[in-house]
Amino acid sequence: MPTTLIRGATVIDGTGSPATASDVLLADGKIAMTAERGQLRDADRVVDADGLVLAPGFLDAHSHADNAPFLTGIDAAKLSQGVTTEVIGNCGFSPAPCPPGRRAEIERLCGRLFPDLPYDWSTVDELYGTSDARGYPTNVRPLAGHHVIRAAVLGTADRRPTADELTQMKAELSAALDAGAAGLSSGLIYPPGMYADADELATLAGVLPPGSVYASHLRNEGGRLLDGVSEAIEVARRAGCRLQVSHLKAAGRSAWGSVKQALRLMDEAWAEGIRVHHDVYPYEANSTLLSACLPPWFHADGHAATMERLRDPEVLRRAEHDIAADDGSWENWVAGSGWDRVLVASAGNADVEGRTLAELAEQRRQHPFRVLTDLLVASELTAWMSVFAMSATDVTDALLHPRALIGSDGAPPGGGGKPHPRGFGTFTRVLARYVREFGLLSWEEAIAKMTSRTASAFGLPGRGVIVAGAAADVVLFDPTTVADRATFTAPTLISAGIELVVVNGRIAFESGEVTGLRAGRRLRRANLGETPCNE
């Protein structure tokens, strides 16, 4: 592997320590040496970095790019903003296990999220082997998804597992962990995970070995946010594991202002000894499946049953009533934000993408609920939405907390439409807005949130720092121009100011383009070095 010398950069090492003027030598996939500026001279390639910042490659604490190895080309979304490692398998969704007897059901379930996967595997180990053979654009740290573990054993039924079924679910999770999964994720607003109670989740999380993570998309991020946080903390307390609260937010006007209370609950858990972090993206809109607008009961018993309900006038009248009545028992996106703040992100129809349900209803002279259900039928439940549901104050409170990590929560690559711009802009937006424009974070603090702290939270020694012996994952950027360019109408514009991205010592992004290399690896503790990461 050729050696690369990055000379004359301002080095921000990821630990939160002050920046230094240094030269950094990359060799054999590692950071071979750092020295004072001008001290290192020889390498196969020398990069003049005067006026630029060199940082560890960013770690995306919350990604859905599980399908990236299966794309024909290299997706530029993460590399173009400096990301070199992604935690995948989030919100309860991962493409395995997929036993033959449940394959069709699991393909339907995961097909709502991941486009065009072959599902020619049965076990997590087989999935990882297939992905490894195809190669990764970035490093990945996979979690095991609760939805698929549950569906592999009892399908999409709305009921508690029997004792025998719970034993089988524990065995599936153990097999995933043996294959290299870093922990368990749940997505408690989606079926079938929404049917699990805290006992089921704590029992499964109890299988996790020391240092593993339970990452939870909370049961409610709106008016009952504090209940959702409390449940996640209780699961981690009972299981004795780390907790990652996924994409912390207060969604819906009635919930605005409650992020500070949620953070207090997590601070109290930390003081108790529960190692809890949260991730956040710097936008006031979230994005998820359009079907999440429907009440929980509507999703029972899987894809076919849900599609049948969408064609039943009596059932639709009940659902429309429940959305309008908003009894507070479920996360009601429409009641919380309004039809005019629900934007269709992707639906397989360019004429509706990038427009709100209220706009489409006016154009079609229909009630917005009818537009919603028509889109779900036409897309067979695969449509996505972006909802302008959060307040700027809550987003800032979540992001500035000392244990906040940065996670894009971007949609899986290759899905088309007009996805949320966070997929292409999260990390550069933090740097442009919260550091350079608002002055709320120093460069050192922001980069620590994106690097060493994420590596520490997910058990990745040797990543997220610039120190001799660490992995040669680095990003070189211009601090005067780095910025997100992606918008809700042009969501795949690459960021400005990212000059060079190196993954495991190989140049993966340069001069505004991916190089075509699949330089990433699937990371598990056994094949990582021992370089420590800061908390």
How is this structure best described in words?
The protein has 16 helices and 21 strands. The protein has 535 residues and is α/β, with parallel strands linked by helices. Strands 1, 2, 3, 4, 5, 18, 19, 20 and 21 form a 9-stranded mixed β-sheet that branches. Strand 2 and strand 3 form a beta hairpin. The protein starts with a strand and ends in a 21-residue tail after the last strand. The C terminus is likely disordered.
In short:
The chain has 535 residues and is of the alpha/beta class. 31% of the residues lie in helices and 18% in strands.
Number of strands: 21
How many helices?
Answer: 16
Strand content: 15-25%
| Alpha-carbon distance between the two ends | 32 Å
Q: Let me know the largest β-sheet.
A: 9 strands, mixed
Question: In terms of topology, how is this protein built?
Answer:
Elements: E1 4-11, E2 20-27, E3 30-36, E4 45-48, E5 53-56, E6 58-60, E7 83-88, H1 103-111, H2 124-134, E8 139-142, E9 144-145, H3 146-154, H4 163-179, E10 183-187, H5 198-205, E11 213-217, H6 225-239, E12 242-245, H7 259-272, E13 276-280, E14 286-289, H8 302-309, H9 313-325, H10 333-337, E15 342-346, H11 357-364, H12 368-379, E16 384-387, H13 392-400, E17 404-406, H14 422-437, H15 443-450, H16 452-457, E18 474-477, E19 498-503, E20 506-510, E21 513-514
Helix pairs in contact: 3-4, 5-6, 6-7, 11-12, 14-15
